Every structure is written in structure tokens, then in C-alpha cells.
Amino acid sequence: MHKDDGYISYIINPKSGASSGKHMVAKFNDYLRKKGYDVRTCFTKSLDHAREMAEDAGRSEDCQMVAVAGGDGTARDVIHGLEGSGKPLMVIPCGTENLLANELGYDVKTKTLIKAFEGGETRSLDLGCANGQHFTSIAGFGFDGEVVHRVNMERSGHINHLDYFWPMWRTLWEHKYPNFKLTVDGEEIFEGCGLIFVGNISRYAVGLELLHYADYSDGLLDVCFYKCNSRLHLAKHSVTSILKIHSDMSDVVYRQGKVIEISSSDEGVYSELDGDPGPDLPVKIEVIPQAVNVIVPPGAKPAGIRTRLLRIIG
């Protein structure tokens, strides 16, 4: 990229972020300006506002690139706005979990952003769409969806990892494992009690590799159905997931596909998309292949647990 090729739209969520992320946002902005780039900084007022600013940048012939600084929700809506525009996007991690940025290989160092920018390497990124709602990373159904629902009911602004403790604890003791019916590309895969993850990336919170065959540019979504009906069973799944052997277990169903359908005979089953409340069931999830082009660091690999812990400490 050259400074004469057009301006850079820098979309920032001012409510997001640990201190390490905010420092990166400022330092990278300074770097671009010192290099002579025309940086147009925009602060989001809502997720819809983030999408609208991205749409404007995507339509502008004078915009050469978009950078988004925020959490997974902000990144998701900016990506939705850029869908199909062909404009390269840089995702700067400064939210609570930063699932997508972690998967793309970003860490807590400004020099990683600079290397990615100067390298100019891009990869296509698929999107998931659940009943018309987009997501970039992972959708959860059942236990995970209920935790997010509780967090959302109690939140009053920016959240951190501690805000998840009590909602998760209450869900652990109060959750009733719903009966799901899972269909992948028209084939009924399983029906029974448990929890489901559908995703575009391999790693979930704190680096758990729940969907370890996932590739965000392969045109497929990965599905992991944990058969589960008790706290003890959930604990067993947690251990096998940490050890990365869960998909080999007889009580786990793992599939890939383009169209995922999930329904339940129970009422009040919650879902979440990228850490935000998702749609009611039944839900139909479709992949949108090669929706946007994302800038990745040279030799990028998903960020490990150490990087994620450093970001949490912030």
C-alpha cells in the first residue's frame, strides 16, 4: 500500500478495550500519520454506526483500506459493512476476547500491526449468517448462549472477563440441557441433549481449540455437538477439550458443512453470536464464502494462551 493510493478509514470503538489494546490503537495511528498516510479516524456510537461507516468506506473510491479497533462485535459489524467491497481490512484487537484477531495471528505488540501493514498479505474471510444475523467467529447454542444472555442482562457498559464469572457459575448450577436436533447440509446428524458450537475459526475463549479443523477461508462452517446432560458430563467435556481430544470421543459429534440447521423441542433455548445474544431457535446458519479480505501478519498463526492471558491482564 502506498500513501498516494487513498485514505485509510480508521474505525474505533471508544468503549472497547484493555489498556494494551488502546495503546496499540494510538501507536499504530501515529505510525501511519508519520508515514504520510491520510488517516480518517471515526469513533463508533453503536454497532449499527460501525457498519454504516464501513459501508461508506467500502463504497468510496478514495479509500484504500479500513482498520477496525474494537472487540468481536465491532469487528463483525464492520466486516458486514465491507462485505463484497474488496477493500482490505485490518482487525486491531482491543476488546474483551478478540476471537477473530487472535485467529488471524495478532498479538499485543504494535510491531505486529506494522509488519502486517507493510507486508500487505491478505486472506479471504468467510462469514456465517444465522437467521439473517452475521457472525465472524463462533456461535453457541444452549449452555454458552445462556451465559451470554445472563451477561447481557447485567451489563451496563464495557465488560471484562470477571463479568462472566457469576453468570457462568449460575448457569452451571441452573442450566437445563436442551434437546437439540442438528442437520448439516440436509442430513440429520444427531438428536439429543447437549450443547452446540458452530464456527468459522478454530479457537474459542482463552484459546480453547473447540473447532480445531476450522479454516476461516475454506467456504465451510465447523460444527461440534457435545452430548451432555449433567455438570459431571460437562466437566468431562472440558477436560477433553483442553487436551484437544474431544472430537475423537464417542459423545461428541464433529462435522463440516455449508448449511447448518438447529432446532429444539424445548422452549427458552438461548444462542450467542460472537459473544452477543443470537437468534431464537429454530435457526438456519449459512456460510458466506470469501466475504472480505483481511490483512494478516507474515507467517500468521492463531495467538496462543500466553498472548491471550497478557491481553486479559492488559
List its salient traits.
2 domains, 15-stranded mixed sheet, about 325 residues, about 30% helix, Rossmann fold, Tumour Suppressor Smad4, alpha+beta, single chain
Quick structural summary:
With 314 residues, this protein is of the alpha+beta class. The protein folds into 2 domains: 3-121 and 296-313, Probable inorganic polyphosphate/atp-NAD kinase, domain 1 (Rossmann fold, 3-Layer(aba) Sandwich); 133-289, Tumour Suppressor Smad4, CATH 2.60.200. It has helices at 19-34, 47-59, 72-82, 99-104, 110-119, 143-154, 165-174, 231-242, 305-313; strands at residues 7-12, 39-43, 63-70, 88-93, 122-130, 133-135, 138-141, 179-184, 187-199, 221-227, 252-257, 259-264, 271-273, 276-277, 283-295.
Overall outline: globular
- The CATH architecture of the largest domain would be Sandwich
Indicate the low-confidence ranges by residue numbers.
none
Structural domains: how many = 2
Mean pLDDT, as a whole number? 90
CATH fold title of the largest domain: Tumour Suppressor Smad4
C-alpha-based Rg, rounded = 19 Å
Number of strands: 15
What is the CATH level 1 assignment of the largest domain?
Mainly Beta
End-to-end Cα distance, whole Å, is 31 Å
Order of helices and strands: EHEHEHEHHEEEHHEEEHEEEEEH
> Beta-strand level of the residues, as a percent range?
25-35%
**Total count of helical runs of at least 4 residues:** 9
Kindly state the percentage of residues in helix: 25-40%
The SS-based structural class is: alpha+beta
> What's the main sheet like?
15 strands, mixed
